[in-house]
Amino acid sequence: MSVTCGIVGLPRVGKTTVFNALTASQAQVHAFAGGSKDPNVAVVPVPDARLDDLGQIFKSKKITPATLEFVDLAGLAKGASKGEGLGNEFLASIREADAVIHVVRCFENEEVVHVEPTLDPARDIETVNLELVLADMATAEKRREKSIKLARSGDEPAKKLVSALEKLLAVLGEGKPARSAGLQKEEWALMPDLHFLTAKPTIYVANVDENGLDAGHALARAVEEEAKKEGAPCIRLCAQVEAELQSLPVAERADFMSAYGLTEPGLHKLITAAFSALDLMTFLTAGEKESRAWTIRKGTKAPQAAGKIHSDIERGFIRLEVYKYDEWVACGKDEKKVKEKGHWRSEGREYVMQEGDVCLFRFNV
Ligand SMILES: Nc1nc2c(ncn2[C@@H]2O[C@H](COP(=O)(O)OP(=O)(O)O)[C@@H](O)[C@H]2O)c(=O)[nH]1
Ligand SMILES: [Mg+2]
To answer: Which residues surround ligand 1 with Cβ inside 6 Å?
Structure first.
């Protein structure tokens, strides 16, 4: 399951620096994920301590994490929705993304000229979001015009579509993102080809300087407040520190992080936030050959989850044998004890997969 996050923001806010740090962290997945030939795409492992733990105890020859793709985009210029700067090309590349990572400049650096004379995160966020909203308005208006005749002639699906588009246009018209329009799933399903930019889950990144990693940083707080208004997650990190961290040998990273008061890389927080904003979850498989984390949408049932591993396993699904990672830990990481204590469960076709399930699928083809 390939899931893509597009990195957006104004020019010179640190997008490529964040991306390069992510690229460095992809080195370890390269071998089995195939990496990417596109220099603007990084295939990044989703950090998962449970997987490492399983891999160690099961003496797995291979450990395969879940991955997310990140795409580095050119900076957005004012007027992009009207074709300024890279304009439409830029907007088209975000359309293909599943989620948006919005990097906001909170670092001072006289050598790196900002697009505006001052640093004002709330204003910068508004500039970027306005372009996205305008692009979405154009998309919605175009489709409305196309469908309105049909709707007036009494065509039911067209009527529904026009009414959904009008709800969207009202919200966009106030400068608010499409995701805040409160449309039902069925309404979104009427326009699967429109790929509204502001309907995508968004994660804000406050890119602070080396001294901004403590809680008090006013610019970063401004980003956090903007994010909060939308109910979007916000990660504070210093792109340069993250890039340096990834360039160090693993053994030296803990010391480096503690020098900046970090308990984990900011990138990990970013990857985890993106994963969860996308409504994704993982289930685990463990064995001598391989331990692996598999990506599924929340709410996926057992046979479809099995299908992620192989279509044969979905087709011939008999049952799922499963225990929780936490129970395995509580049982001294011993599957025998997991069975003795009754935590080893057998589940059928209707079972909804849970975060942290360690799975063994039984199937017959
Ligand atoms: N001091 C400082 N400089 C940064 C930071 N992040 C990026 N920069 C610098 O800002 C410049 C523009 O960064 P870049 O990642 O290319 O921005 P982009 O245009 O958004 O891709 C580069 O010279 C970076 O070294 C940071 O966290 N702190
Ligand atoms: Mg760049």
So the answer is: 9, 11-17, 75, 107, 109, 112, 207, 209, 238-240
